[in-house]
């Protein structure tokens, strides 16, 4: 007879504190078959919410429901995949004639020490995550047909009636139907599954590498620090200043070049005086310096104030667009005022 008819499934669900929702029952199945067996870091927490006292358990999104269905029917975490690995059917299978369930209980978790202490130890098949990584459970779940019916077979029958035509053509899931789900995986099937998962993983990694290569083609990252523009070269700002000055001297007259060694010493400027002005100077390393000068200063006075930033290297003062040496601008316009401002 169907456990739904005689109330066994409903009682098991209520006693376990599981919400009366088929997806929550599947979450409880995964909780018992994985988390309680020591495999507790492979699924997201929302996949394992089943508590009837939590509103979040039965309020699963459509994406979460779809993920649960994929998990519990796929090659990795379906009952068929977990049988003889973390889930055992009581009194079913090789060397399992002994009753391992306490009286009145439909399921129990046994530690690996308890398993080995049984007169007929359970033979656990290897569990491979992703077909590659073998994990060692710390416990196993031993259950009877009523437990499987309540938390796995009947929920899937209602959610996905097309999953098994032979079973879902009937309203009753028999013990024989459940026993048929527990099939020990052969060594050949384990190897085939591992190779299949490896192939899929390699394809995904290959596609990801190709995508990254396409994104990197024709792209050169910006280099520099903070407000300073820079290049991949390790040259400092002063080295760049010196080398640039050298190239400038080949195309400009010597009077455009300021030599810190021959410039007059910079004079102190009274910051409180009303007859001062601030001039922003952009250095060759990209940094911006603000220099305070009296309104009556000359271009040479400005050069003296910024000479310290050249670290002894010769330099030019340029302005405008295209950049033109300030002294040349003065020469081309003799009537202009000689002051730097």
Quick take:
This protein is of the alpha+beta class and 341 residues long. The protein has helices at 3-6, 8-15, 22-33, 55-58, 62-73, 79-82, 112-117, 145-159, 165-168, 175-181, 187-216, 237-248, 299-306, 326-332, and strands spanning 87-89, 107-111, 127-129, 133-135, 139-143, 224-225, 228-229, 276-282, 288-294, 318-319, 324-325.
Write the topology of this structure.
Elements: H1 3-6, H2 8-15, H3 22-33, H4 55-58, H5 62-73, H6 79-82, E1 87-89, E2 107-111, H7 112-117, E3 127-129, E4 133-135, E5 139-143, H8 145-159, H9 165-168, H10 175-181, H11 187-216, E6 224-225, E7 228-229, H12 237-248, E8 276-282, E9 288-294, H13 299-306, E10 318-319, E11 324-325, H14 326-332
Parallel strand pairs: 1-5
Antiparallel strand pairs: 2-5, 3-4, 6-7, 8-9, 10-11
């Amino acid at each position: 007879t169907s456990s739904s008819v005689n109330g066994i499934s409903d009682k098991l669900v209520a006693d376990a504190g599981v919400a009366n929702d088929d997806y929550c029952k599947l979450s409880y199945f995964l909780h018992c078959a994985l988390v309680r067996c020591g495999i507790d870091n492979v699924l997201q927490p929302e996949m394992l919410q089943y508590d009837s006292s939590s509103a979040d358990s039965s309020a699963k999104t459509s994406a979460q429901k779809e993920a649960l269905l994929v998990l519990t029917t796929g090659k990795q975490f379906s009952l068929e995949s977990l049988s003889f690995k973390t889930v055992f059917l009581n009194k079913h299978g090789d060397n399992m004639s002994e009753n391992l369930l306490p009286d009145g209980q439909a399921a129990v978790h046994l530690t690996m020490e308890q398993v080995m202490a049984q007169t007929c130890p359970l033979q656990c098949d290897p569990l491979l995550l992703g077909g590659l990584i073998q994990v060692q459970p710390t416990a196993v779940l031993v259950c009877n047909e009523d437990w499987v019916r309540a938390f796995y077979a009947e929920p899937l029958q209602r959610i996905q009636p097309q999953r098994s035509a032979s079973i879902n053509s009937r309203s009753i899931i028999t013990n024989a139907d459940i026993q048929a789900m527990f099939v020990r995986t052969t060594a050949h099937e384990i190897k085939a599954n591992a190779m299949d998962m490896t192939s899929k993983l390699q394809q995904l990694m290959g596609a990801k590498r190709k995508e990254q290569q396409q994104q990197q083609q024709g792209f050169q990252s910006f280099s520099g620090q903070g407000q300073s523009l820079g290049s991949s070269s390790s040259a400092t700002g002063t080295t760049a200043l010196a080398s640039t000055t050298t190239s400038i001297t080949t195309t400009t007259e010597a009077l455009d070049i300021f030599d810190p060694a021959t410039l007059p010493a910079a004079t102190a400027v009274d910051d409180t005086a009303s007859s001062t002005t601030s001039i922003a100077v952009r250095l060759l390393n990209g940094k911006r310096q603000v220099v305070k000068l009296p309104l009556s200063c000359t271009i040479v006075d400005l050069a003296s104030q910024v000479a310290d930033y050249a670290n002894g290297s010769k330099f030019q003062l340029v302005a405008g667009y295209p950049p033109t040496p300030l002294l040349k601008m003065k020469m081309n316009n003799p009537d202009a005022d000689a002051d730097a401002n």
